[in-house]
């Protein structure tokens, strides 16, 4: 069964207004952590087992899942016996592993640390600060067909992001600036073969730099074009944009 890995351990310094008291994936959109939105999105596409690469203020993430059923349910408290009976309102069958991957570990190091949890099959991976309506099932199918070690969702972004150069359906290099109006970037929603984790040297390795550049040079990264919604949450303005979309009742990532 396919698992999804979420990188959720960074300091989130560009959103310090919120992350001074909580990890970035616990910043709320519509009264729920963005991490919850990501898991709901994946579950709607058939994935129900998750590995959270935690670090900075990881206790907030663990407490959220430890109390998830009780906080999301009506409950009866028998103060005489200490018994707590929950009356669950939300149908939820997630299996969530929250793994301490270190407070200052880089993205590649976090992935390498959870290698034993992903097994031998390709897994989905994304970051705990972005939302999309990418077709994960189609991306998984494209990954299997590609025979590459990594497949990434190549999205049409805001102009401030660096570009990926795609030739014959494969990512061949990463560039710093957008050269064309139809240029695409790595949207962060990936499918990864566990063998790709062998390209990661250690805790200080950024997944997006040496490992992905080497994989691209070897023709091992397939591009899955996504023309739909994609938005990261790097600052208060972007958080408010996601809040407004949710409040409108037409949030593109809400496919459940």
Largest sheet: 7 strands, mixed
Quaternary structure annotation? single chain
- Give the proportion of residues in helices: 25-40%
- Overall number of strands: 15
Strand order of the largest sheet: 7-4-1-8-13-10-14
**What is the CATH H-level superfamily?**
Spore Coat Polysaccharide Biosynthesis Protein SpsA, Chain A
Any low-confidence stretches, pLDDT <50, length ≥5? Answer: none
CATH topology, anyone? Spore Coat Polysaccharide Biosynthesis Protein SpsA, Chain A
Count of helices?
9
- The domain count comes to 1
Gyration radius (Cα, Å) is 19 Å
> What is the arithmetic mean of pLDDT?
91
Just give the CATH class: Alpha Beta
Percent strand? 25-35%
| CATH architecture label name | Alpha-Beta Complex
Order of helices and strands: EHEEHEHHEEEHHEEHEEEEHEEH
User: Structural class, from secondary structure content?
Assistant: alpha/beta
In one word, what is the shape?
globular
